[in-house]
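Dear support,

I submitted the protein below through the web form. The confirmation email said the job was done, but the results page showed an empty box. After a refresh the structure appeared. I'm attaching both so you can tell me whether what I see now is the final result or a partial one.
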Amino acid sequence: MADHTPHDRWTDTALAPAQVSDSGTYPGVPAGPVRRAALYDTAGTLLGHVWTDGTAAGFLDNDAAGPAAIRAGARGWRKQAEAHQAGRPAARLHEP
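What the results page shows now:
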């Protein structure tokens, strides 16, 4: 008769949560009122908005702008991650 006991790696007792890293950027959910700034391309198309509540930050793309908004959002998130990793507070993202 075959043994039907599952291997340890397939049982819950073998698993333990471990924190391996943080997200590398600011929290993406605001805790209060936000400030936002519109981002336009050179043709004047609204690509989306960069926002912050002072702690959290993000980019909300304009779906109507299509792939250009997606590219702008990816670059915005990358820039925010760089600022976060450099220790810049979300409240200061609007500064050059």
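Response: this is the final, complete result; the empty box was a page-load delay. The longest strand covers residues 46-52.
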